[in-house]
Amino acid sequence: MKNLILVIAAVCFAAIVSAQNATPAATNGAKPASAQAAPAATTPATAKPTPVSWYGCPKCDFTSQKEGKCPTHATALVKDRAYFCEDGSTSEKAGKCKDGKDMAMMDCKAKMMSARAKMKDAKPASTPAAAPAKADPAKK
Predict the structure, then answer these.
(1) pTM of the prediction?
(2) How many domains in the chain?
(3) Does residue 73 lie in a domain region?
(4) Residue 25 contacts by C-beta under 8 Å, 6 or more apart in sequence?
(5) Containing domain of residue 114, as a range?
(6) Residue-wise pLDDT tens for the chain (140 aa)?
(7) Is 129 within a domain?
(8) Is 83 part of any domain?
(9) CB of 56 within 8 A of CB of 108?
């Protein structure tokens, strides 16, 4: 009797496990609700997010996601990981400037971290404490 109960339990367990792994078969030709989702609503597996380009000012910590000019220095912004000289020339590869110095690389991440550190170090402007009212000597 014990063996019969163990065999029935094992068969039920095997049926439950195999039923979880099996895909449901549609008998009337209708698709399951999960398969009826519009293909436009799902994103393809091959879609990759487009990387964001960063641009930085060669003279200060200003960074932007758009090309343009620095609002402080009115100089052209340099693309992240590009090389630049003080005279304003830029290049995608490292090289030498006209004055013989090595070109500097624009590192926007370092600029952003530097700006964040400066903001943390700056103490907020404290409001002056209310001064006690002084007696007017002319009223005596």
Answers:
(1) 0.49
(2) 1
(3) yes
(4) none
(5) 55-119
(6) 889 999 999 998 888 888 776 565 555 655 555 555 555 555 556 767 777 789 999 888 899 999 999 999 999 999 999 999 988 889 999 999 999 999 999 998 888 888 888 888 875 655 555 555 555 556 55
(7) no
(8) yes
(9) yes
